[in-house]
Amino acid sequence: MSIGTRPLGSTGLAITEVGFGAWAIGGGEWTYGWGSQDDASSIRALLHAAELGVNWIDTAPVYGYGRSEEVVGRALRQMPPGDRPLIFSKCGMLWDEADRFRDPLRTLEPASIRRECEDSLRRLGLDTIDLWQFHWPDLTGVPVEDSWAEAVRLRDEGKVRHIGVCNFDVALLERCEPIAHVETVQSPFSMIRRETGGELRQWSLGHGSGLLCYSPMQSGVLTGGFTRERAAALPRDDHRAANPEYHEPQLARNLEYVERIRPIADRLNISVGALAIAWVLQWPGISAAIVGARSPEQIDGWVGAPDVRLSAQDLEDITRAIERTGVGAGPIDVLATVG
Q: Which homologous superfamily is 14-326 in?
């Protein structure tokens, strides 16, 4: 199948409108895990996504404490070199192997991020990472200017091709931009978590930065298949077990919202999850959505989302469902942003 592409800001890269998010394939037994996961299933999912035309993978060292990158590296070695997708990874979260459920340290100390880059290259089996991103803002007191200057040096040395940030606010972006252009910004964006649709999206548009959105299905809530029973059964090593979106009162609102938008998905003959992704992609300035999968079957459920074009009526009905349920926070009306 053919998946549409969009330019990733000023990088010169043309990326498919959906990318493979490799967070969940890091598995369980760590702070922000997703429960147990079979590596063979993960590799099949990665290969299937590439076969369908998905041309980029977003991973990170902290996903499974190296496991996600190692699995991605194993999948890459099974692909012909010319068919390999672009690889996006991150830095800035250091874990303690002796206490895998302790929150990773968020540090962007220059020497540390350089070590992380070398470790990621080794795990992935690559000479260069296509996009290298700061995962979260530093919490150890390192000036972001020093960190960003080190990212520029890594790019100049050819260890990474492009540099970006994740989970930064506009104030931090403004401190980085004078040193070197922030080529990409990554932030959560979904029908429930909508804050990215405001100031951050406008900043990215105004500066020519690619905007990558993660968790467009709100980590499963917006797939259409999530239930109270499933929420109650989440294991300890599934990070969602501690997330307020999976507990009352948010859970009830979220599930009610899914039922209100299900008829919209039905009339479009798509899944609720595909509708959620299509809604994110409809916002001007969004480069692409990062969508997770742990099996080939999950990919089949969302890979067609970029082909969905929501009508003015569809968008109005979604807005009305958000207003009536009071779900989430952030800008609501896509129609207000389009001509």
A: NADP-dependent oxidoreductase domain (3.20.20.100)
* CA pseudo-torsion sign 321, 324, 327, 329: positive
pLDDT band at residue 85 under the 50/70/90 scheme: very high
The chain-wide mean pLDDT, for the chain, equals: 95
Q: Which pTM was predicted?
A: 0.95
Q: Is 108 exposed, middle or buried (0-12, 13-18, 19+ CB in 10 A)?
A: buried
Domain spans in the chain, listed from the N-terminal domain onward: 14-326
> Peptide bond preceding 249: is omega within 30 degrees of 0, i.e. cis?
yes
Encode pLDDT of 311-327 as tens digits. Answer: 999 999 999 999 999 99
Q: Tokens 């405001």 identify what position?
A: 198
DSSP assignments along 214-254, one per residue: E-TTGGGGGGS---HHHHHT--TTBGGGG-GGGSTTHHHHH
Distance from C-alpha of 103 to C-alpha of 110, rounded to nearest angstrom: 21
